[in-house]
Amino acid sequence: MTRAVPHPVLSAVLVLMWLLLTSFSLGNLALGTVIALTAGWAVEHLHPPRPKFRRWSAIPLLMGIVARDILRSNIAVARVLLLGPNHPAYHSGFVELQLRLRDPNAIAVLAIILTATPGTAWIEFEQEDGRLLLHVLDLRSEDDWQTLIRDRYESLLMEIFE
Amino acid sequence: MRHLEQLPPWAAVVIALLVVTGASLTVLGGLGLVRLKSFYQRLHAPTLGYSYGTLLIVLASMLMFTLLEGRVVVHEVMIGIFIMATTPITLLMLGRAALRRDRDAKLGHDEAVPPRIPREDRPAEPRGQTGHGEGLEDAGLLPDAEREERERADQARD
């Protein structure tokens, strides 16, 4: 938080990463520290919105839900790819929904989650009113994506970030 | 293969299963790029390799070198983190660029996309399932090269 170490957590993680990738020695520790401090200083000049974590305990829960959903959608998309896109049971299409999230870091995490899920692609997001355009590979008319995203990810992300 | 022989059989089987499953998912993703019909559908295919394809191969690598070297090897986690953080950026940029192209009536279309509604006209409720998409090529708006050629020839004659 001081001027010398503007992002202590980021710098600490970078030092750890440097030691993980190289073998531990005093020279590597010194070099890693210099690189981490430079990186922290560079990030400070980009003025990123500083993430504030309100509830750490919800992070493992979110990770578990995401890992399970991605596994399920991997299997679903693999099936679509094997049966072929011309199979009549599958329709792809665009879905527009409304996000309540406003924290930029939380929205970035949601974008990573939805992009990493093979069935959904994040296409466009209007920052002013929170409209999100998704492309869904296997779209069924009875699915309610608005409720799905809101209850599964958005509420947890709001607990963590806002 | 020499590495696998130094391992207990159960570990070799587990590692082989993880690698083969991860590689199959990645190949399937590559196959999807060929099989799917429109740009937006193709955005979904590589995520197979990007999500569980990478995860399974990273897990296999961690397990194998942890057992071989007798200490915890977690370098590979960095590969997972870097891929997790960088791939969405590319996919987002590609998706937005395609949407922008397809909304421009003068350019060739890949798929019927939902139009952009100006902010003041936007309804209070989101559109939900927009009814656009389907991976059908919007051929009516593709530039008609033959007609353009004829018109150009006509103009040259006049």
Write the layout of secondary structure elements.
The complex is a heterodimer of chains A (162) and B (158).
Chain A: H1 8-21, H2 26-45, H3 58-83, E1 93-98, H4 104-116, E2 120-126, E3 131-136, H5 145-161
Helix pairs in contact in A: 1-2, 3-5, 4-5
Chain B: H1 2-5, H2 9-35, H3 39-42, H4 47-69, H5 76-103, E1 128-133, H6 145-157
Helix pairs in contact in B: 2-4, 4-5
Query: How much of the sequence of chain A is in beta strands?
Result: 5-15%
H/E element string of chain A?
HHHEHEEH
Mean pLDDT of chain B: 79
SSE class of chain B: mainly alpha
Outline of chain A, from the CA principal axes? elongated
Give Rg of chain B in angstroms: 24 Å
- Measured as a percent range, the helix fraction of chain B is 55-70%
Biggest sheet layout of chain A: 3 strands, antiparallel
Task: Spell out the helices and strands of chain B N to C.
Answer: HHHHHEH
Low-pLDDT stretches of chain A are none
Main β-sheet of chain B, in a few words?
none
Total helical elements of chain B: 6
Mean pLDDT, all residues of chain A: 83
Shape of chain B: elongated
Q: How many beta-strand runs of chain A? A: 3
End-to-end span of chain A in angstroms? 21 Å
Strand neighbour order, sheet with most strands of chain A:
1-3-2
